Each structure stands twice: as C-alpha cells, then as structure tokens.
Batch of 3 targets.
Target 1
Amino acid sequence: MSRILCPECGTKISDKATKCPHCGFQSADPKRPISEQDKYEMVPIFEYDIEEWQPNRGDLSIISYEDNRSLIQYFGKWENIKVKLPAIAEVIGAMAGKDHIMVAKMDSYVKDLIDKGIYRFTIDKQGEILPTIRDADGFVKQVRLEDMTLTPNLTQSLNNLSTHAVMAQILDEIEYVGDAIREIHVELQNDRLAMAEGARDKLMQARLIQDAKLREAAMLNVIHSATDAKRVLMRNFSQNMYHITEHSKKSDFQMMLDFKGEKDVNRKAIDAFQALVYITNSVQTECEGYAMLGEYEPCKECLEEFKSFILENKLNDRDTLLLLNENSSQKRIEVVDKFTDIAARITAFDPTERIDYTVHSLLTAEHENGGEPDEQE
C-alpha cells in the first residue's frame, strides 16, 4: 500500500482511501478511492545517507619550518637579543666572560708571618705586588704561583632573569584569563543569538511541511523556541542598557580615568544592538507562526509584550537608541532609524483592531528611501 497527500489539506492518507480522515475530503464518487479520481502528490521518501563532513586537517606540527627559520634569523643576531631579551643577554655575557689569575701558594706559617709584618711582598715601581717575599733582613723568599680561572658570580644575574621569567609568566596568565573571559562572553552572546536564528530556521522549515498535523505541531515548537530566545535576549538587553545608562552619568574626567569601564561599555553597546535586532526577529517569528496557524489572539499578546519591553526600556525615545550608538565603536545609525520606525508602529498598535493583514508589516524594517520592506539585519 502506498501513501499519498490529501488534495485538500495535505495530510498523508492511503492511496486506497475514499475519504480523508482529517478534513473529510471526498472525490466526486465517494465509493472509489481518491487516488483514482483527483490529482495528488506522493508522500516523499528520501533514500540517501546524510554523511558527516570531516575535512582532513593533515598532521599537526609544533612549529613550521618557515617559523623556525625566522626565529633563527631573528635571534641569531646578538644585538637583537640584547635589545629584546636584556636579562638573558646579561646572563649569557656574564657566563661567557671568565677571569684568569695567578695565585700565590704558601703555607700557613708564611701567611702568619706576612700578617705580622715580618714578611712582606716586593712592590715594583708602579706600586704593584710582585710574587716575591722579603724578610726583615732583605732575604728573598720564592713563592709558587698557581693559575686559576674565576667563574663570575651569576647569582644576581640569575635572580634578575628569574624575576623577569616569573613576571612574564604572571602577566601571561593574567592575559590568558582576560582572553578566556572575553571568549566566554563572545560564546554566550553567540549562544543567545543562535537561539533566535534557530527559531527562525525552524519557522522556514515548518511552513513547508505538508501534513497538517505535523505542521501544526512543528509550528508550536517554533513559537516556543522563539519565545525562549526573545526572553533571554530581553533580559540581557535590559542589563546592558542599565550599565550603559549608569556609565553615561559619569563626568568626562571619571570616564577618562576608567579606561577599562569604557571598553566594557563599548562591548555592551554592541551586544545591545545585536540583541535589539534579534529580539525583533524573534517577535516576528512568534507572530508569523501564530498567523500561519490562524490564531491571532496570542499574536496580539506577543505584540503587547513587545510594546511593554519598548516602553520599559524607553526605546520609543530616539535618544535612548542614540545613546547606544554613541557608546558603540560600531556606529549603526541605520539600526537606530529602522528600529525607531518599528517602535513607533508597535507603540501605536491597538489590540482591539484586526491584525490579519498587518502582522508582517508591523515588525518589518523598511528601507530608508521608503522602498520595499526588508528583513532585519
């Protein structure tokens, strides 16, 4: 037995069925199967495997030949090492320089006599000590000399190098933690945006389902996903907006001193702009989903919730959007203009009116030149 799609509602039915169990559709002759009298489509069957894409990345190498050659060319010059790595250059220089001296060998008895002044070293005309000893009567004593090599004391140099290494490690750890925090922030923001994008993708897929029951179930799932994404983004936007507003109350002198806070506000302003666009898209997904189901009352509720969000965050005031744009390094005046238009339409929305044909236009940003509407960025 094969299965076909009902010509009326698209529900999957048997090719021997004389009546659709879902919508009650019958052909001209109720005693004969629908498939023998009306045009219909077969239920699609996909007979192929979905293969996972696993690109071959090749063997991983710790350091490439080109990088290794560049390092040798750069650090092969002593002048570069002294400029870029002074602590290491100091230790290498100290270890490379060794002093050679001649040391007089004498027993403890002779040393004691020298200490008492009975024996003394001979002094030449330049005032330097000669390796000969004279007693009080002027008799010369010979002293054996021993060649010695003195290794310089590297304790201070090694301590300096150790301090440099520890400080470099600490700074590297601090930078690593900062990078990790920034990566977590980016990942969280991407997760929030991906929820909204996922809901919109589900909507585009669900509307193509031909089975009425499956389409209705899928559409409800789409709406729930869009609501979850919308609320997460709304909470994040409100928090960022509060932080930006508090920062804007600081004096110019305080802002100059708070460089880290300035960078943080810039990041929050960019996130807020992104959230604003995706919140609008999520509300649009909710409303379009309910409209496809023919349920316009919950659609009105979605618009009312969006209206409350706009009023609570003063997004119907253009100055609020300009404040976001002012604190963002990515100037998005086109987003300010388009959302100002959307906010005006939403706040003017009357829930007592019919919205059968106005749902799409309420939440669609229009071109600045008044042309055809386009989708949110």
Target 2
Amino acid sequence: MWKMFRIVLLVIALAQNKPLAASQGVVCPTGFQNVHGSCYWVSLTPTTWKAATVICQSHNAHLADFSSRYEIVPVMLDAVIPKSSSFKYRDPKVWIDAVYSPSKRHWIWSHDSSLVNYRYFTQLAHSPGTTERCVFAIVNTGIHPWAHEFDVNCENSYLPLCETSPI
C-alpha cells in the first residue's frame, strides 16, 4: 500500500514538475532523498574527492557530513543502496566531506571548516602529517548493518554522496 502511495506521489510530483515531498513534511530537491530531515543524492559515477565536491556543488549541495558514523547507516540504506542496486557495488563506497587540514592539524568538514569529532570517528584520530587525505564511508548491508569511514588518497575514485537542505 505504502509503495503504491509513493508511486502516486512521484507521478503527481513529476507531472507538476515539483520536488517530491518526503516524510515529516520535508521537501527535497528533485532526485534527492529525505533521510531524517536532510536531503541526500548519490552520483553513480566514481570520481576523485575534489571532482566529487564540484559535482555536489553543481547540484547546490556539498559532500555529506555526519555527527557520528551511526548517522551514515540510514543514509546509505535509504538513499544510496536503493539507487546503486543496479550498479556494480553491493556495498558502495562513497566520498563524504571530511578532509585532513595540515594547517589546522585536524580533520575538518570542508564545506564549513568545522572539526570532525574524533569521539564518533575514531579512525580519524591520527594525523597524516602534511599529506592530503580524504574520507570515504562504506556500510556493510548484512543482517546488522554498520558503517565505517576510512582515510585514503584523495585521488582515489568513489561515489559522491551529496547533501543539501530541504527546500
């Protein structure tokens, strides 16, 4: 029943060329998925971290940031996995907004320069020195889904996970 209701809403939204209203009265831009009041979209084209930031900006968004790794799981399960199910990845790896700032000697969320909380992102509690490092996240979609973040060379290619505010 709920699936049929969502299809009807989608058809109406597309016919009126308006974004689809999501749960909790949140309206996201077209193509973005509401997850707990924020809007997420994933590109299915793997790219470098810098190119991923440009892709998100072209959609009036930024690479996704999170208060803790536990917030990543519902976003991946609701916004990324369904879209990427026809893609070649079972547990897709996505770029998120965290990057190491050698000048601050700390991991930051690049879109607003706020510090990453190491309490919730323990993998980022080390300092890579002067090396530019970026962060991707992965969610294991088994019976008990879990998320993990890893810092890697920013030239690696992963899927951009973009976030924007509701409209």
Target 3
Amino acid sequence: MHFGQDVTGLAFAEDRGHWIARTAAGERFAGRSVVLATGSWLAPRVPDIRGLDRFAGEVLHTARWEPGRDLADKRIAVIGTGATAVQVTPELAKQARRLKVFQRTPRWILPRPDTMLGNRLLASVPLSRSAAERALLWAHEPWALPPERRHVVTSLIEQLARAHLRHRVSDDWMRRLLTPDYRPGDRPLLVSNEYYPTLQRPNCKLVTWPIATISETGIRTADAVEHQFDCIILATGRDPAVPMLPFPVVGRQGTGLAEEWAGGVHGYKGICIAGFPNLFFIPEPHPGVSDSSALLYQGARIDYALRAITTIERENIRVLDVTREAQQRDGTALRVHPPVDVRSSTGRYRMPHRPGFGSMLYPATAVEYAKLAAELQLSDYALNCSVSAAAGTESPGGNGTRRRRSAAPSPMSTRMNSPTGPSDPDAT
C-alpha cells in the first residue's frame, strides 16, 4: 500500500504486458492488472449566473468544501435544492445569522425512517439487518422499470411525500412552493427529516424568484429585490460533462482513453474497455443510478474485477482484453433498452459528453445487473497467455517463479464465487 501518491499517468506496456503508473514524485509502479477507482463526476458544476465572479464575499462550492470553515453569524445564500443542499442547509442554519435558500425546482422528499427503536432492533434481533436491507432493495427496484410499468409505485411514493410535506410544513403557501410539478422518479428522490423544519426557522427563508444577476454585495432576483450576503454557497452538484479521469490513460497501440471516448463513453458491462487490457473501472464509464443504491452496482463491479484478476493470476493470462464485438454488443443493448432515467419526461440524465447514452449503469434493476456481472465470459475476451500451449509444461510466471499448468483446458465461461483479491506479484 502506497499512501500520498499523486498518479499523473497510466500507460500499458505492450512488450511486458504490464501497466505502468507514473507519480508526481517521479516514481513508476508496474502491475499486471489495474483497478481504476478514481470516482466519477469529479468537477463541480458551477451555475452560469451573470456576475458570479464579481461577488466580493466568499463563494464556496459543496464539492470543494474546506473542513473547519467558520460561517458563524454570517449572512449565507444557498443556491440549489438537490441532494447536497438538503443535507447542508440544516447544518448551515444552525450557524448563520441569516440563511436564504434559492430554489429553482422543488424536489420530492421522503421521510427518513431511521429511529432509535429501529437501531436497537437491528442491533439485537438476529437477521433483522439482512431483512431490512432486502426490503429496502426491493422497495427501490421498481424505479428501474419504465414509467408506464410503475404507476402504482409512483402513486404510493407521491402520497407518502405529500403526507411528509403536510406533516412538516404548516403554511399552505410554503407547501405550494415546495410541491414539485412532476411525478416522483423523474428526478432522484431525496430523503430528509430536517430540511422542511429548517426552512421554517426564524433565520431562514425560501426564495423562489429566479436569480437575475449577482452583484458585489449579493444576489438580485427577477422581482428586483437585492439580497445582501457575506457568503454564497453553490450546492449545485458535480458536472458530468467534464472528463472523468484525473490523469491520462493510454492503452494498446498508444490509444488514449480520451481519444477512445471522443465519440461517446462506452464500455463492456460498464467495467472493461476494448484496447485497455487487464484494466477494470469502478464506477465509470456508466456510474449514475437513481433507482437504487450505487453500492449495489459498484459491489457487483468490484466482485467482477476481483474474480477476473483471480482468473488472470490462476491461469497465468498475460493479457485479458475484451473484444470490440462483445463491447459493441453490450453497447447496443444499452441503446436498444435505454435506462429509465433516459426514458423519463425530464431527460435530465442524458449527459452532453455521452452521445446516445444516459448515465445509468444498466437498463434494468440492480439485481439483474448483479446477475449479469456474476459470470466472467472468457469467450468475450481476447486472451494472451504467458504459458506454453502444451499441456503440463512450465513457463515463467509474472513474479519470476515457475508455474505448472494442468492439462485440462480453461473453461470459456467461469462462474465467479467470492474470491479473495490476489496480490500483484509484479508491483514495485
């Protein structure tokens, strides 16, 4: 394990069958297999608001938050009402002298079910945690269905969200302002017990007039009101249109990943890219989910990567490279069966850097994706083994030792069952 290393580039060495990682310190690390877990949507989304660069006070973005920031007794504006805003607004209201939340689009918000009784139950009753996890999973799975097949679920969720709003907000006019004009599921649902009460605090106000411009001292809205602030907080999320990798990745024949994805992001099962052997992506290239927990999808990807690496080490495979045909077949399935987010009325998840693709990982449920990723189909890969083709012969392994291969041929489809991650014998 190497901590504090800033990787500046990753390149595949065809002659050795290794990936070479370069760091800012000038070091080089070689590995037969690489798992890229660099995250997705790395760049903050900065709203295009006239005059933002003229504001004389502090402008902070939740995606670049600095720990220990002192906002006590300040006049604070929060722009945005998405998942991040719902989380930070209650905490900011505890510190601010005055807090105003600028809302463009209200969101459907559900109550958070966790209670002290529930926590004690999960801790003391056998199998209760597993049952609760399964219940949450199946409660979210219908959101991966097309809208025409989830009317009942949509209606139930809307009733629950409306009841939560009525229970938490006493003022009729504020309830109208906080009620969305679209059906649940067109945008990701939010969960909070604190957001609605926070908006009703004496030092907090909800502003629904559009922002016209930002001046040196504050925000001017379309009703010609000037709102004075010491600090503006952009809770506007991250920008999926910005390249996802923080450093260049170069595969076979000198092809860069940026070049490979110039016409649109694509991959095989959302894990591998043709021309980039022994390289496994988590969570790109199709990371976003709104129907269920991202951990379910990423867990399936991690299992797939570990099992593929286990196969590489066990069979002494030098290069495991998904074929263009298999990748094209997988991409066609995504286009023919677009995910629910692409089919939804808002079209919100069709990202500008992904022509023809939405950001969803797989056009179905998390359970179905886990089944898809449960099998390593070697017939979809081009293999280049380090061992001799003769049965029972020996050849140098990746770590310089000699390995014996059995006479039995490797199966073209390997069922994967909870392996442990192998160590990389070629890492330096």
